[in-house]
Design a protein that fits this description.
This protein is mainly beta. The chain has a single domain, classed as ntegrin, alpha v. Chain A, domain 4 (Immunoglobulin-like, Sandwich). It is about 10% helix and about 40% strand. The protein has one helix and nine strands. It is elongated and about 80 Å long. The chain starts with a helix and ends in a 12-residue tail after the last strand.
Amino acid sequence: MRLHKFLSLLFVLSCCALATDASAQVPPVMVASFNPNTVPLGPANPTILTVTVTNTNLVPLTNVAFSNAVPAGLTLVTQTGGTCSTLATGGGMFTINPGAGTFSSTSVALAAGQSCDISVQTYATISGEIIDTTSTVTSNESAPGEPAIAILNAPTPVRLQRFEVD
């Protein structure tokens, strides 16, 4: 009976040790959203796409990176804000190419529990549901994290017709 308790305790301790081992870190978590998430068509009706990356580990993650190629029906205009490539994350690089509809971010480090975000201005060019999906998010210390998905609704414009009664 004593040996069984000892082995059980040893197993519990080994599991806890693995959870804090840098080689066993969970991937960063990434979410994306549009604000507002419903807009009429055209450049006069912009919406902000924000991508947020969070390190849920107890240790820092380095070289945290993701990219995004906006889908057909969505036009990328400019960056409107963000913290993923600032001194708060050890520096890094943010690139945006509105003509190609792409942007990407690399942060030197995300501390334990830290989040960073990137916001870009976009507008809808087609009616319907527009689904934006990022790349996976990567770091040196973990497997890739899942892509983030944001959904924008661009209702079909209502066309008024004029009727005359004779």
